[in-house]
């Protein structure tokens, strides 16, 4: 989308900002970056995205923060890629492959047919590598120190599960689902149904309710909205471009992926 003028926003009265979250940034990174860049006093996000996901992150400012719960409850749409024949403990690229199984015998018809059991109201167990609380502790904290925890399943609704490309071992998908659905768990369960295992290798949130990632601001467009320094304000030191952080939980991904551009999440 085109970059809007900063004059079009009234952050104190309240705005709903659509941001296209970059890869490896946490949702809090984005909140902090927006808050510092636009000098917003009150801001929050309407639903997290995993660091290894990209796409639509909705931020609410000022009085619009009262709408966060309403926005979070709306239907979500995701696109992405499953890799068949391999599993990982985190169900995605956060952790290395721990098992490989044959997938070459599968036909396109068998792969497509397996989607039917994952539409409608289904039982789903969140990943151990998730923010679900277990005995007062985040499950991912237990997982990252090598522990085990029992996570209860819950009911979620998947309204649509469409395969948009099948080039084994990769399968592209589009999913429309309710709040609380874990696409990583869907990858795991889809692989189990096919008998070959699977994990998530790419995830983009494309829609929340009527809000679309096509209307979201990139971080570069956000920077263009930075207000000028007040007249007479002391000269600021040049902002320092920080190097990519070695985030807890992303060590394997960052070590095995191509070098990322410098992470601006902590700069203001």
Describe the structure.
The strands form 3 sheets. Strands 1, 2, 3, 4, 7, 10, 11, 12 and 13 form a 9-stranded mixed sheet that branches. A two-stranded antiparallel ribbon has the order 5-6. It is 20% helix and 28% strand. By secondary structure, the chain is of the alpha+beta class. The two termini are 23 Å apart. The model is unreliable at 241-246 and 260-268 (pLDDT under 50).
List low-pLDDT spans: 241-246, 260-268
Question: How is the biggest beta sheet arranged?
Answer: 9 strands, mixed
Per DSSP, the total helix count is 7
The number of strands is 13
> Which range does the strand content fall in?
25-35%
Gross geometry: globular
Based on CA atoms alone, the radius of gyration comes out at: 20 Å
Q: Which secondary-structure class do the elements indicate? A: alpha+beta
Mean pLDDT rating: 86
Q: Report the oligomer.
A: single chain
Helix content range:
10-25%
The helix-strand sequence is EHEEHEEEHEEEHEEHEEHH
Give the end-to-end Cα distance, rounded to a whole number of Å.
23 Å
Catalytic activity: uridine(55) in tRNA = pseudouridine(55) in tRNA
Domain tRNA pseudouridylate synthase B C-terminal: 184-224
Function: Responsible for synthesis of pseudouridine from uracil-55 in the psi GC loop of transfer RNAs.
Domain Pseudouridine synthase II N-terminal: 35-183
The gist of it:
The protein is of the alpha+beta class.
Topology:
Blueprint: E1 16-21, H1 27-38, E2 43-45, E3 54-61, H2 68-72, E4 76-84, E5 86-87, E6 99-100, H3 108-113, E7 120-124, E8 133-134, E9 137-138, H4 139-144, E10 154-167, E11 170-177, H5 183-194, E12 198-208, E13 211-212, H6 219-224, H7 251-256
């Amino acid at each position: 989308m085109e970059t809007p003028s900063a004059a079009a926003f009234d952050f104190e009265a309240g705005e709903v900002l659509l941001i296209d979250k970059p890869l490896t940034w946490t949702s809090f990174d984005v909140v902090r970056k927006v808050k510092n860049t636009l000098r917003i006093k009150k801001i929050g996000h309407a639903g997290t995205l995993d660091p290894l996901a990209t796409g639509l992150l909705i931020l609410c400012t000022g009085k619009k923060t009262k709408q966060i719960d309403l926005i979070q409850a709306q239907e979500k749409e995701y696109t992405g890629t499953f890799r068949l024949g391999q599993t990982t403990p985190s169900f995605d690229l956060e952790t290395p492959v721990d098992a490989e199984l044959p997938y070459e015998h599968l036909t396109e018809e068998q792969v497509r047919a397996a989607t039917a059991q994952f539409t409608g109201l289904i039982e789903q167990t969140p990943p151990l590598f998730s923010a679900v609380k277990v005995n007062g502790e985040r499950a991912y904290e237990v997982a990252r120190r090598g522990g085990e925890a029992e996570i209860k399943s819950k009911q979620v609704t998947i309204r649509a599960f469409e395969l948009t490309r099948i080039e084994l071992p990769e399968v592209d998908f589009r999913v429309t689902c309710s709040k609380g659905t874990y696409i990583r768990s869907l990858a795991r369960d889809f692989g189990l149904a096919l008998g070959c295992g699977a994990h998530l290798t790419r995830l983009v949130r494309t829609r929340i309710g009527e809000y679309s990632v096509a209307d979201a601001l990139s971080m570069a467009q956000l920077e263009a909205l930075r207000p000028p320094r007040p007249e007479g304000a002391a000269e600021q030191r040049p902002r320092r471009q920080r190097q990519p952080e070695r985030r807890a939980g992303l060590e394997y991904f960052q070590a095995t992926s191509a070098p990322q551009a410098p992470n601006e999440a902590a700069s203001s």
